[in-house]
Amino acid sequence: MDTITNTLKTQWDALKAENPHLRIRNAADQLGVSEAELLATQVGDTVTRLRPEFAAILTDVKELEKVMALTRNDECVHERKGTYLNPDFSSPHAGLFVGEDIDLRIFHTHWDKAFAVAEKSERGERKSLQFFGKDGLAIHKIYLTPDSNEAAFDALVEKYTSDNQTTAETTVAVPLKIEEKADADIDVAGFREAWVNLKDTHDFFMMMRKFGVTRTQALRLAPEGDYAQKVDKEVIVKMLEGAAETKLPIMVFTGNRGNIQIHTGPIRKTMWHNDWFNVMDPDFNMHLDMSKIAQVWVVRKPTEDGTVTALEVFNEMGEIIVQFFGKRKPGIPELQGWRDLVASL
């Protein structure tokens, strides 16, 4: 183990002794390193490096049976339990899992490192697969649950263990590219016309690229009418409490550069904990840091199935934190209950 790694390991051990409940992501922030660099100090002990064969590893995850999938950004954590079914890695741009429970959009060019972790906790050993980007930020984690097949996990780790088990980790900074043109340089009339004539919500991203607008700029320059309305962040709490009360099935999209994770279904239990507003259901948990929300918009997009309404939540950099929709599928109109709930806010 080299001196730098050894020092880092010692610093982390000291932090953990001081604060046993400190999460690794927060420890990494405090120590000024990435989470992957910190995790790598445990290689050979509680951590095993895996070969970065992401599509193959993820395809084999179904053998683990019911697991907990975790995808997060700085402001929102999305945890969903289920089995990884129907993998599709045929596209060079995005991989998919489309199941009732585990529903992911995977942007594999951003995936760089894979580890298997068996960490000691108060409740015994906690096993997981953890995936990181080039910058050492966590993209996706898969935790075993009491209903998982532990023998299949051990076999998967053995199958994909890398020859490289070094404790040193290299990372490269991945710059955030959000450069906004002046509104005067945008063909606003053309942009508004394109929005009004949308046929599918998935075309919105291509439309933004075509007209060279950022996401929040697009909402500011939306067509007249109720296409985009800025609202207070308290609307999120009212919406989630209302959905829980009426048992309305909703969709919750949370992501980062390398992955988007989606929950579809009703939510039951909502609660505050310090700055965080949470959904705490048996198979779905969401933790949203309300103090880091800069903008919230109600956004309406025309489609061939009628209008689709979203609640979109942004941080101060203009990055999407989380999006909420009513439960829907292509070919089926949006739930009237969802429209009514959003209109009531």
Description of the structure:
It is built from ten helices and 18 strands. The protein has 345 residues and is α+β, with helices and mostly antiparallel strands. It has two domains: 3-85 and 113-160, Heme iron utilization protein-like fold; 183-271 and 288-344, HemS/ChuS/ChuX like domains (Heme iron utilization protein-like fold), CATH 3.40.1570. It starts with a helix and ends with a helix. InterPro entries: Heme_Transport_Util_sf, HemS/ChuX_dom. It comes from Flavobacterium arcticum. Residues 32-160, 212-345 form the Haemin-degrading HemS/ChuX domain.
The secondary-structure class comes to alpha+beta
Helix content: 25-40%
- Written as H for each helix and E for each strand, in order along the chain, the element string is HHHEHEEEEEEEEHHHHEHEEEEEEEEH
What radius of gyration results from the CA coordinates? 21 Å
Question: How far is it from the N-terminal to the C-terminal residue, by CA?
Answer: 56 Å
- The CATH topology of the largest domain: Heme iron utilization protein-like fold
CATH class of the largest domain: Alpha Beta
pLDDT under 50 segments (min length 5)?
none
**How many beta-strand segments?**
18
For the largest beta-sheet, the strand count, sense and barrel status come to: 9 strands, antiparallel
Number of helices: 10
- Beta content: 25-35%
CATH evolutionary superfamily of the largest domain: HemS/ChuS/ChuX like domains
Protein name: Hemin-degrading factor
Domain Haemin-degrading HemS/ChuX: 32-160, 212-345
Organism: Flavobacterium arcticum
Pfam families: HemS
